[in-house]
Specification:
Blueprint (H helix, E strand, L loop, with lengths): L4 E7 L3 H13 L5 E4 L8 H4 L3 E2 L10 H24 L5 E2 L3 E4 L7 H10 L4 E4 L1 H7 L10 E4 L2 E3 L1 H15 L2 E3 L3 E6 L4 E6 L2 E10 L5 H7 L6 E11 L9 E3 L4 E4 L5 E4 L13 H14 L8 E12 L5 E4 L6 E5 L5 H16 L18
Helix pairs in contact: 1-6, 1-9, 3-6, 3-9
The structure holds flavin-adenine dinucleotide (FAD).
């Protein structure tokens, strides 16, 4: 590999790393940018996710994280339009919304409705009759349902588009893993790969669940671990259901024309890639209690991936306090697809020093990074 000097080297080829590179290159075409990492790693979260854009259904308090996710959802239609146009890749995005059946709701139903109302979250309460009319695939036992104004994206198409768009804009994609760094106590000089050193003026650590391993090489202790999720995709006619459904500790996400994705387990077991028949059967069984026709739908594929979870479950985004030319964007945990557009703007603006408001809850400084 040539020992060129890049302006910015992004480490991590998932939706987070590529969206940052895409935004930076769009903002400043003169920058020389490289993205390092395997864009097709079978365990990366970006290709394993269900693609739910769901800031509301799993939330019951309006903190800064909730606000950030909500702002990201608002950016989605424009972001996908822009990305499709630059990349030439079509990306399925639906803003038809999610359904939360009362029968499988774990918390206080009335409290949740109050929260939606107070926070002006677009929602409707569907009686069983209305639910039968709008979503006949749902089991009768679902009872009353809340419709929530959220979204759904095909995250694999979005990731393909991000890689393509970065490439088209002139980002250099080096499919190499980083095995070390050249650095002194305050500056990172190069990322070391099997194919040689990649030198940069600035570096972005965006390596999902693998970020803490890379942090260790830089002598920083990033408290972040992988939370495994097993998932599957079933073949079923599209017109049976248009909404993402949150069911019995499971969710059912429509991938228009490509079946339905069921997820997901939450396992704190390190980097164990095993896909277990029993876990997949259990997902299908639970989903079928909410949408009965899924019970006999043919299985297309099953897989596992790792969610990057920081100790406080918040993203880690911003400038390193230890290295003057290092930035982080990692720890996006269960909502990294949702956060992609907003974190790309946030991280690019941090690097370009145009960010208006730093979010202290997300700062790497909370871990002395
Ligand atoms: C099962 C599952 C379901 C999910 N569902 C949803 C959902 O419905 N909605 C939602 O918003 N979010 C969801 N998520 C979360 C979301 O997928 C993640 O938060 C997001 O994809 C994280 O993206 P990332 O780019 O940081 O990490 P990843 O996609 O994991 O990418 C990490 C990148 O780093 C690279 N890398 C690793 N080690 C090195 C190294 N040494 N050198 C260079 N590169 C390296 C990898 O090759 C990879 O390219 C889900 C996650 C999982 C696992």
């Amino acid at each position: 590999m040539k020992q060129d000097l890049f302006d910015i080297v992004v480490i991590g080829a998932g939706v987070i790393g590529h969206s940052i590179a895409f935004r930076l290159k769009q903002s400043k075409p003169e920058l020389r940018l490289a993205v390092l990492g395997d864009p097709m790693s079978s365990l990366m979260a970006s290709r394993a996710a269900a693609g739910m854009l769901a800031p509301f259904c799993e939330c019951d308090k309006a903190d800064r994280f909730f606000g950030f996710c909500r702002e990201s959802l608002e950016k989605y239609p424009g972001f996908i339009e822009e990305l499709s146009s630059v990349s030439g890749v079509s990306i399925h995005l639906s803003m038809k919304g999610s359904l939360m059946p009362s029968s499988s709701f774990g918390g206080d139903w009335e409290e949740q409705i109050r929260f939606f109302r107070e926070e002006n979250i677009p929602h409707e309460i569907w009686s069983p009759d209305r639910r039968r009319e709008q979503a006949p695939a749902l089991a009768d036992s679902c009872g009353e349902v809340i419709w929530v104004g959220e979204g759904q994206v095909n995250n694999r198409e979005m990731h393909d588009a991000l890689v393509m768009a970065s490439q088209k804009l002139g980002v250099e994609i080096l499919e190499k893993n980083v095995t070390g760094f050249l650095h002194d106590s305050s500056t990172v000089e190069a990322a070391v790969t099997d194919a040689g050193e990649v030198r940069g003026r600035q570096f972005v650590l965006a390596s999902g669940s693998w970020s803490s391993q890379l942090g260790n090489i830089l002598d920083v202790s990033l408290p972040l671990k992988p939370i495994k999720g097993q998932m599957c995709r079933l073949k079923l006619e599209d017109d049976r259901l248009d909404y993402t459904v949150h069911g019995l500790l499971t969710y059912i996400a429509p991938w228009k024309g490509k079946g339905f994705v069921l997820g997901s387990t939450m396992e704190d077991r390190g980097f164990d890639p095993a896909i277990e028949d029993e876990a997949i059967r259990d997902l299908i069984h639970r989903a079928a209690q909410v949408v009965p026709c899924l019970e006999d739908a043919p299985l297309i594929e099953s897989w596992a991936g790792f969610r990057p979870a920081a100790e406080d479950l918040m993203p880690v985004m911003g400038k390193s306090s230890r290295y003057g030319n290092l930035f982080y964007s990692t720890g996006h945990y269960r909502n990294g697809i949702l956060q992609t557009p907003h974190q790309a703007d946030y991280t690019a603006e941090t690097i370009l020093e145009t960010l208006a408001d730093e979010i202290s809850e997300f700062s790497p400084q909370r871990y002395n990074l």
